[in-house]
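Researcher: Next sequence.
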Amino acid sequence: MAGLRERKKAETRRRISDIATRLFLERGYANVTVAEVAEAAGVSKMTVFNYFATKEDLLLDRQPENIEMLRDAVLNRGPGQSVSAALREWCQDMLAARHPMAAVGAGVTTFWHEVLSNQDLRNRALQQAEELGEALADVLVHAIPDDRWHAEAAARLLGATIGTVFTTAIKKQLSGVPVEQVRAEQIDVIDAAFDLLDGGLANYGA
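Model: Next structure:
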């Protein structure tokens, strides 16, 4: 019974977000109110805020899923596999599966143009990046016998690497590079970013 209830809640959350995203991209984020989203979704404004803490989260709605996927990638990595290798593989898997998290595909340009053109959305996107780093640090503390400082330092380096991978794809598409070209080039981008992380910067620029 609980499983069915959770599925229904997830479906409602997804439906509200899908409707909100459509309205935001059609009319502009600043031109759509939460009340209008609620009306279009057939729910109350209070119900919308029961599922989404802020208006920004209606568009940037995948944060819970992103955090859960990162946790799974770390906790379910293979025997003897490093966290870096597991997250490199995760980035490759997201790209191969054409998952929205990979930030390569139809609609990416429109979506990120809207995000980057609104300061509230930009701020929330940056805040979510911080949240991902904190979540990654939390899972590292539990997964690897280490102190909090090392976990946070590792999480920031890993998070910056992942962020660089996805930001590279977004910037290319915003500049007009065809989606399939970006997709093909991302394979090398992922490897280059994680190779730099794994090799360190001791000899960089020397």
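Model: The mean pLDDT is 93. The domain at 62-199 is CATH 1.10.357 (Tetracycline Repressor; domain 2).
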